[in-house]
Amino acid sequence: MKLRTSLFVGVAVFAFAKAYPQQPATSAAQVQQGIAQKRTAQQNSLVKNLPFENIGPTVMSGRVVDLAVNPDKPSEFYVGYASGGLWYTNNNGTTFEPVLDTSDTQNVGDIAVDWKNGTIWVGTGENNSSRSSYAGIGILKSTDKGATWQHVGLADSHHIGRILINPSNPDEVVVGVTGHLYSSNDERGVYKTTDGGKTWNRTLFVNNESGIIDIDHDPANFNLMYASAWDKDRKAWHFEGSGSGSGVYKSTDGGTTWQKLDGFPSGDGVGRIGIAVYDANTVYAVHDSQFRRKGADKGSKSGGALTKDDFKTMSKDAFLALDNKKLNGFLKRNNFQEKYRAENVKSMVRNGSVQPTDLAKYLETANTQLFDTPVVGAEVYRSDDAGKTWKKTHDGYLDDIYYSYGYYFGEIHVNPQDDQDIYIYGVPIVASKDGGKTFKSIGAENVHADHHALWINPKNEKHLINGNDGGVNITYDDGENWIKANDPSVGQFYSIQVDNEEPYNVYGGLQDNGVWVGANTAQENKSWHQSGQYPWESIMGGDGMQVQVDNRDANVVYTGFQFGNYFRINRETEDFKRFNIKHELGEKPYRFNWQTPILLSPHNQDILYLGGNKLMRSMNQGDDWTAISDDLTKGGKDGNVAYGTLATISESPFQFGLIYTGSDDGKVYVTKDAGGSWTDISASFPKDLWVSRVVASEHKKERVYATLNGYRWDDFKTYVYVSDNYGQTWKNISGNIPMSPVNVIVEDPKKENIIYVGTDNGAYVSVDGGSSYHAFAKGLPAVAVHDMKIQKRENHLLLGTHGRSIYRTDITTIQQMDASQNVQLFEVASLRNSPRWGNSFSMWGDAFEPSVAVSYFSSYAGKFSMVVKDANGKELQRMPLVPQAGINVIDYDLSITEKGKKTLEKANTELNIRKASNGKYYLPKGTYTIELDGGGGNALAITTKLEVK
Fold this sequence. Notes:
Layout: E1 2-5, H1 28-44, E2 53-56, E3 64-69, E4 77-81, E5 85-89, E6 97-98, E7 108-114, E8 119-125, E9 135-142, E10 150-151, E11 160-166, E12 169-177, E13 189-193, E14 201-204, E15 210-218, E16 221-231, E17 233-234, E18 239-240, E19 247-251, E20 259-260, E21 270-277, E22 283-292, H2 316-320, H3 324-333, H4 342-350, H5 357-363, H6 368-371, E23 375-383, E24 391-392, E25 411-414, E26 422-425, E27 429-432, E28 440-441, E29 451-456, E30 464-468, E31 471-475, E32 483-484, E33 493-498, E34 505-510, E35 514-519, H7 528-531, E36 536-540, E37 548-549, E38 556-561, E39 565-570, E40 575-578, E41 598-600, E42 608-611, E43 615-618, E44 626-627, E45 646-651, E46 659-663, E47 668-671, E48 677-680, E49 690-696, E50 704-709, E51 719-723, E52 731-732, E53 742-747, E54 755-759, E55 762-766, E56 774-775, E57 785-791, E58 796-801, E59 806-810, H8 812-816, E60 823-825, E61 852-858, E62 864-869, E63 875-881, E64 886-892, E65 895-896, H9 898-907, E66 921-922, E67 926-933, E68 939-948
Parallel strand pairs: 1-48
Antiparallel strand pairs: 2-59, 3-4, 4-5, 5-6, 7-8, 8-9, 9-10, 11-12, 12-13, 13-14, 15-16, 16-19, 17-18, 19-20, 21-22, 22-23, 23-24, 25-26, 26-27, 27-28, 29-30, 30-31, 31-32, 33-34, 34-35, 35-36, 37-38, 38-39, 39-40, 41-42, 42-43, 43-44, 45-46, 46-47, 47-48, 49-50, 50-51, 51-52, 53-54, 54-55, ...
């Protein structure tokens, strides 16, 4: 196969493409300008009133980052979700309501509440430094329990570690600012306000790559507090989670001045540190030690079975001297392909095509390296002299707490009534009753792994509230039994998919919550507690990834978990086929993205594509695989994160083998001959950006779209492009989309010039091919939209969000909208008459209220009425309307006036329209006219039909 680079670039088209060697981080001023632009865009949008409905799911929840509980009424508390906003309950988690939806972000790092005055502080931007820890916009404050929010500063902080409110003076607040995730910046450290956020002073600054991840104070003395600094450097290809800038600091004047504590471990291996203060003298710390374990680089000396580490330093002679039976045992245990057996592999080593270390490399994947690590990991320290000296509380290692990703956890808690009673958590949550000497897991079968928040009731030490990757759990017996409180719809979807069943199903892969499927009509309520069957079904664990559904048989589903671990599932027979995609022994291992892309060919549903650093193809539903390209990336970089991987694949519906790929390091390639040759078509793009989507057009064979995402550079600009010549030249169609990284672009299947775009801060539609965009708004908070799918039969647009599960809307009105018209009235769906309308099954139940959506477009904001008329043109109902410019939707309850009832009965003497139990009369079976009236009898001559069957 051949790789070529397209050098033809149109000068006029590419005045914008003077590429940067590396994209600079977006400034706080630019971010604030983008936020202001989005507010304006929503106000002026023609689709701002098009309603989106959240269809769940809820039961698996999403990542919790913090809890704020009323100590005097612990059934009342707030929950901060990493990218799902802030939620409030006053009934112990039975139900929640969102309180951050009117703000400009849903990304939360830490929360603090002044319960006496009802003031809420939110530090925006998650503090866990994960792959999807989205940046925030600073500190938000509400004095009306979340009805409105005020931005009170620290706009360039990006990520907030901790907020402390002085119990004696609520205007005095101390904030630990973690700072940028993917770039250096100066707005990090400890900040303090004494005037409720009007002004801030930075009181501690370590360096521009070290921020403050945790702060805690003496419960009896706010002036005595400790802060932990964290030196880290995250790139798309490498995460250095420790450094010499990490350490513990102490303040005796309420955070105004600070002194570094030299008794705590120091050096390049010091990682994230969590702090818990018990009293004036006693303080605990949990440390993610990135120092290497003693003897970690040495191979196995046990003389027993071979391990992969044995081969890392084994010489050629030592390998050839191995007993064949022992070597075959290793090869079979580790699922080496049948062709790799002792004699064959030794022959390859003899002729130099394979080195012994290649056997270890053959088994190492990005996924195994998450858990197979030689670092020390979690350590607990205690000081009994106010931080002067520190002693590790336990002997040996605390294994299976942090693995290699302690950066994701790092908190510790001490019982306010017992200094020996402490809790730490990582993958599990564990407790110690002897001051950290020994620990015991307090998880349970209904408690998710990966823990990030804990509250201990100061008046009842057995009452705990825990926040984890699977939502909220509550216990009243110190972890013996847990209640799950997952009412909010806060799923963090990476991707979604739909099928063509009746009703159609929606599939999706979520952060640490696997892959789920459910009917789009599934009701999100608690009725399933009666039946015992939640309407959504889990079909895969891990971090759920992309889904493809065979359009011939929806039982055949292709999906998987992180780093390219994919399966073919038959949901009817429950057969699982794991794909075995391996490089040849001696070659460089394939690299797979965290979100490895897969695609069923639209031309043949037996053909499946999967992207590593090369494009893989199976002609038989995943049973066998062949690489049909060379490396389609820049070749990767040295680091501990898989990089130089494909992130997106698209095949043209017009031609088999016309395939586009996009990589996480900025490369876009095209092949027109099913992989025989490839052409690089990305030379003119800004460099090194993640290609979040490449999409072959459904309307024009030569057309292709591409979106780039600078999130992993802290570059938040929008990059959207289109080409009408297979990528030879590109046109920037970012238009007026407010600044936010772009994740997805979808073409409308019916109208060529309509495109939909999802960003890290909302979703947009263009009706003119990308010249201008309109912001979606109604029912949709400022949340990251990771994926979009259109169910063509139903004409539904679905948004897969990373924080608020899945939203759905009908796009018929967008397709039919004609902005050159003053007023349009769109088709109304027919519906069946029911005796349930306005009635209930018993006197104790609520009456059933029917509804039908009536959509119309107005080019201006005015006043007129919607009039319902019978077949003879007689008025049956009139509803006043106050439209805004653009699409408007009114929910008509199908009721008629008493005069309208008499009109119908007079025209048809067989009718006897009875008053429903709710006091209303409803339309009987028939065909009616809906008309817009401009007032004073001045009909706008705009009508549509309404059929009641």
